[in-house]
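Bench notes, afternoon.
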Amino acid sequence: MPPVIELEPAPTSEANLEAAAWVFKALSDPARLKILAYLASHDTGPCCGPEGGICACDLEAVTGLSQPTVSHHMKCLISAKLVIGEKRGRWMYYRIDPKGFALLRAFLPRIGG
């Protein structure tokens, strides 16, 4: 897994292209897309408290994946700056990273012409 690199709206540097490649790699897995779609459409899950976010245990139930596999996918999404994770007690809670998605939306038109 590469270091976390900040994606910029314009593909002007080698580091930014590297960041973009990592974001697209993170988006290339069907399980991660399913997780992102779930996070984008749910503010909280059955196991969440008043702080919000989706518990890793909810993502296990939604995806049918094991805890280690969900954890692996979440590390990829966090590294790509698409998801924010927060540990509360013994569980991780996740939510969409609005800044990361805003940068992705700004970046896409610049490579599309």
